[in-house]
From TrEMBL, chain A:
A Gene Ontology molecular function term of the record: ATP binding
SUPFAM superfamilies: P-loop containing nucleoside triphosphate hydrolases
Pfam families from the UniProt entry: ABC_tran
Keywords: ATP-binding, Hydrolase, Nucleotide-binding, Transport
Organism superkingdom: Bacteria
Location of the ABC transporter domain: 25-258
Protein name: Aliphatic sulfonates import ATP-binding protein SsuB
Species whose genome carries this gene: Roseibium album
SMART domains with a match to the protein in the record: AAA (SM00382)
UniProtKB/TrEMBL annotation, chain B:
Natural source organism: Roseibium album
CDD domains in alphabetical order: TM_PBP2
Keywords (A to Z) from UniProt: Cell membrane, Membrane, Transmembrane, Transmembrane helix, Transport
Gene: ssuC_7
Transmembrane region(s): 16-40, 104-133, 153-175, 224-248, 273-296
Protein name per Swiss-Prot or TrEMBL: Putative aliphatic sulfonates transport permease protein SsuC
Every ABC transmembrane type-1 domain range: 104-297
Cellular component per GO, a single term: plasma membrane
Compartment list: Cell membrane
Pfam families associated with the record: BPD_transp_1
Family the entry assigns: Belongs to the binding-protein-dependent transport system permease family.
Entry keyword Kinase: no
Membrane topology listed for this record: Multi-pass membrane protein
């Protein structure tokens, strides 16, 4: 992480293979078709997308537009049927094997027989880190998501919001430069959601991680993102890509500003246009 | 589980409601009902023989209470009364030396040892089969039909074969009987564990995938913990089946020791009281073993944080 950042400062990365040095995800003409009993389903069609280091990219669109599928393709949880994709310059499978990303699911997906600390430790155990290193990372990341003091609790003893924070700590403990989040706050109430959005934004501003975030909430997408990708369904494709000019440091008040509303308006237009294709 | 913590608000209205809210009340009622039905049945079933006895002795106009008492005190009744069985059990356990051939504790221990050996082998075999089946499509396709069809064969038919065949190759004593227990107990464990090892949610499997976990890591850290509750449930069934297997294994071989042998000897000599006491002891044994697994289950789930 720091090596990459300093390399960028000195311009050394220019000499590496890739044309765009800090390109994290490069998707070219990608399609994914599921074969079902009712015939083929075109989940993704002709997707072209570039994501650079430090971007906070949101996928937004109505359900069935393939936003989760696209995230799962990046994570090597689904295989594209056409086109190409690279993550950190290599195939998604290699990137996964290199543990290039942390993935946060829609549900917290904590293991019920493990305490919160043990849940955060799970990926670290699998990576084979030393006990001391595990302990240090658990403490640091639980602190980061404001869960210090809940190490010995079991998941069912925590609220939904706390469980989701624990799952974020678990993803962060891997210390990935790339964070993939699939509607992580979808099941939470507005207040908790706002709070977690702020925390996530602070984390992003602090660490220069690349975040790919799936949501169906317009304010959430606009508030968090540096780039908003609007998808539309049948077949799932990109309708609009909106670069946000909001400052990197934001707080919830920004949602009242004219710039914010302008972007939100454009996202809404995109979603509406996507919907108009429906019968 | 928590019947003692929250008294029902209806308690205030019905003075007897509290009596039935715990486990003690209902269990007592059921036990008393069984005893009542048993005593009545014993009196009815033993009546013909009792009348015959009175006729032979030339007794007439026997008082009703005396008549009933006599039907409950025959030496070889069609159906012995509960207290006769209890006295027999008392005499053959507490009153007898454990080394005596008439001690039920001695016979129980013989049956128990082959039950436990068979259960141990059966459970291990069941777990191994389940692990293989879950991880290999070939094993799933090839083994599963055989495992299921193995249980359609009547155990009473196959038990003598197993014992005769094993005797022919020089294996005798505990192991042949244990094999029959194994035959019965591996099945619920195999089926339960296959279900348990396959039960993790997709999202949990996906999580393992994003960590690039090996199959062994996914098994050890996800599938196995998920299967633990299934394992205990199937072990309870397997344990009861093991005891049945051990008793069945003692029946056809003319075994001289074990609860099965007691049952067989009892039926040869018309010793119904002996048969019933062996049956009751066998049932008690099975109940205790299953309860023991239940306790282990509670401890294990508590340590895994799954008991709430």
């Amino acid at each position: 992480m720091t090596a990459l950042a300093s390399a960028k400062d000195t311009g050394m990365v220019e000499t590496t293979i890739s044309a765009s040095p800090n390109r994290v995800i490069d998707i070219d003409n990608l399609s994914l078709t599921f074969q079902t009993n009712d015939g083929p389903v075109h989940a993704l069609s002709d997707i072209d997308l570039k994501i650079d280091e430090g971007d906070f990219v949101s996928f937004i669109g109505p359900s069935g537009c393939g936003k989760t599928t696209l995230l799962r393709v990046i994570a090597d949880l689904e295989q594209p049927t056409a086109g190409s994709i690279t993550v950190n310059g290599v195939s998604p499978q290699e990137a996964r094997l290199n543990r290039a990303y942390g993935y946060v699911f829609q549900a917290a997906a904590l293991y019920p027989w493990r305490t919160i600390a043990k849940n955060v430790a799970l990926p670290l155990e699998i990576m084979g880190l030393s006990r001391a290193e595990q302990k240090e990372r658990i403490a640091r990341n639980m602190e980061l998501v404001n869960l210090a003091g809940f190490e010995k609790k079991y998941p069912w003893q925590l609220s939904g919001g706390m469980q989701q924070r624990a799952s974020i700590a678990r993803a962060l403990a891997v210390e990935p430069d790339l964070l993939l989040m699939d509607e992580p706050f979808g099941a939470l109430d507005e207040i908790v959601r706002d709070h977690l959005n702020e925390q996530l934004l602070q984390l992003w501003a602090k660490t220069n991680k690349t975040v790919v975030f799936v949501t169906h909430s317009i304010p959430e997408a606009v508030f968090l993102s540096s780039k908003i990708v609007v998808l539309c369904p049948r077949p799932g494709r990109i309708y609009d890509v909106i670069e946000s000019n909001l400052p990197r440091e934001r707080n919830l008040d920004i949602r009242e500003s004219p710039e914010f509303l302008k972007i939100a308006h454009r996202v809404r237009d995109g979603l509406r246009a996507g919907h108009s294709y429906e019968d | 589980m928590t019947d003692t913590t929250l008294p029902s608000p209806r308690n205030n209205l019905n003075p007897f409601a509290g009596l039935m809210s715990g486990t003690v009340g209902p269990v007592t009622v059921v036990v008393l009902s069984i005893l009542a039905i048993w005593y009545i049945s014993a009196a009815v079933l033993n009546t013909p023989f009792q009348q015959e006895m009175y006729e032979r002795a030339g007794q007439e106009h026997v008082q009703f209470t005396r008549f009933i008492a006599d039907t409950w005190a025959q030496e070889r009744p069609v159906l012995p009364a509960p207290h006769q069985v209890i006295v027999e059990i008392w005499n053959t356990t507490v009153e007898k030396k454990i080394t005596s051939k008439r001690s039920l504790i001695y016979h129980s221990s013989i049956t128990l040892s082959s039950t436990l050996l068979g259960f141990l082998i059966g459970t291990s075999l069941g777990i191994l089969l389940a692990v293989g089946i879950v991880h290999s499509r070939v094993l799933d396709k090839s083994l599963m039909p055989w495992i299921i069809s193995s249980q359609t064969i009547p155990i009473l038919a196959i038990a003598p074969m197993i014992i005769v065949v094993l005797n022919a190759v020089g294996i005798s004593g505990l192991l042949p009987k244990a094999m029959i227990s194994t035959y019965l107990s591996f099945f619920p464990v195999a089926v339960g564990m296959v279900k348990g090892l396959r039960s993790p949610e997709i999202i949990h499997m996906d999580l393992m995938h994003t960590y690039s976990a090996s199959r062994f890591q996914a098994f050890w850290k996800l599938r196995l913990p998920y299967a633990v509750p299934f394992l205990f449930t199937s072990m309870k069934i397997g344990m009861a089946a093991s005891l049945v297997g051990a008793i069945v294994g003692e029946l056809p071989t003319g075994a001289v020791a074990g609860l099965g042998a007691r049952l067989l000897a009892g039926s040869y000599y018309g010793q119904t009281i002996q048969i019933w006491s062996a049956l009751i002891v066998a049932a008690f044994l099975a109940g205790s073993l299953v309860a023991l697994i239940g306790i282990l289950e509670k401890i294990a789930l508590k340590r895994m944080g799954m008991a709430r």
